[in-house]
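Standup notes
- DV: blocked on the single-chain target, sequence here:
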Amino acid sequence: MKFGIIGNTQKTALRVILPQLIRWLEERQIPFVIDEKVHQFLNLSASEFHSTAASNIPQLCDVIIAFGGDGTILSTARLVGASGVPILGVNLGRLGFLAEIAPQEIFQSVEDILANRFTIVERTMIEASLEEGILANKIICLNDVVIDKADSSRTILIKVFINEEYLSTYSCDGLIVASPTGSTAYSLSASGPIVEPDVRTIIINPICPHSLSARPVLIPDDKQVRVVAYASNNLINLCGDGQTVQKIPAGASIFIKKADHCVRWVKCSRKSFYDVLRLKLAWGE
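- DV (later): unblocked, structure below
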């Protein structure tokens, strides 16, 4: 078993916990490879450990340990892509809804993995693509695709189609198309439903619609959503997971569907989805 180590170098706690883990792994002769940016952040000598670019790590390890907050988990999920390498998230952030493992739990979690005391959980990813010639690559996300107004204070008009059947037109600030995992992210803030991660659905949730009747809609995840947005300045933001943002021309068709691959989670914790809701979001209090 070989581990890949990725971390958010903006988290000062990384300087404390990661050197401890490195010493722990060395003492037990457990192989690992480190993201070269983390290697430099910790001021490790060039020959001390095997380091490489983060993009190479999924091909060199069996499990990736990602240190950071939920943003780190989201970027790691995109990094892993279709390789299928499972991710263990260690929370160094504030909320840590996706990164469930606390820093002090990492040593026991690694022992559990080595002893095969863990489960693999698969999470649906979604992808967005545009008409040919507008967007070079697909945007693949774990949480959500968001279409909203770019550099404008006015509402935009958004038409939504499901498998080319017209659903509705919203006058709103934007639209969230979320996976079940993303139901507890931006969609939750926009009064969307809480959805268990293994439910096979896609959430369509307008942001601040100028209507008393507009509500989120859940559709089967084998259907495709087509979105056409119109804005006064003729520009629309297309954003994946709050991290990948592109400006596209208004009126372009945006196609959103379940991605061909999923992300795989290492679950060592005994906390259920409902435990995490109560603990992290104070649900029901």
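- Follow-up: The chain has a mean pLDDT of 90.
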